[in-house]
């Protein structure tokens, strides 16, 4: 392309390219940074930019670069599979057509504060960073399989998909050797991060994501080297992090997650260092943490939705500390396919024991037995009710003492008014109503009273009741002691 074929605006860009100078069209005729009027004096053809990047002029001891601010770029900037050696900085520009960088090799790409109908850069390789800060993109952004040696900046960008089934922001199989900075990002449509690898952190703080009734974030097998921070995130739709690996923390403090009638957050089969889900409104939709390994689960009870799935969830620490009465509803809301999941109760019990709260641990174990009782046949449920009422399945052993003292008092008063007849009048010991009642209640200890006297009528029935009750109390106490010893 000859320079005499260029417009005045294009000549400015052409001459500045060889030395890497910046051409700023923003302030001509008093225009602001938002572009103002996009006349011919600030219009540059995409073909001119392509010619510069592929075969532009060079000057000795100068570093060529394309640096343009506030231009209107017409035509299609097509650099597919091109090898570009110069830095590209096109800020505050308005692209009439989607720029195409698929398969290209670039040292650095900066489109900050620009307006684009889309961006096609799948399978590209960028040796520096890709900056889309505050861009307004009215179509699909395709970065699937792209390799970025630096960081990816999407902070305060606005991406509006075309409303079809394709993701608005396609980042599947993306590889970033630094951070993914997307604070304040606004997306209408799906963000696809399946198989993406972010060596640093992902920052979605104060982002606004909307895709009602569908996946708003699809990030299966996502790998993050440090943290995924999404404080004050507002997401409408389903967030799917199945199989993700985040060794640091997933920070969802004060976030708003809503997907009525569906799953709001699916983080199943994940490995997570810390998961923070506190403050703000309760999750609206299902919370799925099945088969996930978490080091510290920082979960506020009031943040939980009405439906959760916790089958095979494991965690080491559970914060903030809350009484068992506040945590148990979480387990009751689990609608997993199995009718009873003892593992969930054991995890909660272990968390309380690590903090030294044995009282709450016992309450969780008692709740586990009561939940298990619902799955038993009628005779199992009957025996369970007996154990629950008498000694709380062994977790409330003081109840046994209360029952024994009550039955001892009742039996002693009854037999004090009616002495049973001795079996051998000349050989029987003197009748004692208290020790006679103890002989009936305690199946192991004998005071020589039970075998020496034979009650009749109603008192015989009473003696049978005391014997049976004594055996039940003894069995349940032994069961409770066995559980205590095995836990220790």
What keywords describe this structure?
488 residues, alpha/beta, 13-stranded parallel β-sheet, 37 strands, 27% strand
Summarize the structure in words.
There is one protein chain. This protein is of the alpha/beta class. Helices cover 27% and strands 27% of the residues. It is built from nine helices and 37 strands. A 13-stranded parallel beta sheet has the order 1-3-5-8-12-16-20-24-27-29-31-33-35. Helix 4 (342-354) packs antiparallel against helix 5, helix 7 (398-417) crosses helix 8 and helix 7 (398-417) runs antiparallel to helix 9. It starts with 7 loop residues before the first helix and ends with a helix. Residues 29-35 have low confidence and may be disordered.
List the helices and strands and how they pair.
Blueprint: H1 8-17, E1 22-24, E2 43-45, H2 46-55, E3 65-69, E4 72-74, E5 87-91, E6 94-95, E7 105-106, E8 109-110, E9 115-116, E10 119-120, E11 125-126, E12 130-131, E13 136-137, E14 141-142, E15 147-148, E16 152-153, E17 158-160, E18 169-170, E19 175-176, E20 180-181, E21 186-188, E22 191-192, E23 197-198, E24 202-203, E25 208-218, E26 223-224, E27 228-229, E28 234-240, E29 245-251, E30 256-266, E31 271-277, E32 284-288, E33 293-299, E34 308-309, E35 314-319, H3 324-332, H4 342-354, H5 358-373, H6 378-391, H7 398-417, E36 421-422, H8 433-441, E37 453-454, H9 458-487
Helix pairs in contact: 4-5, 5-6, 6-9, 7-8, 7-9
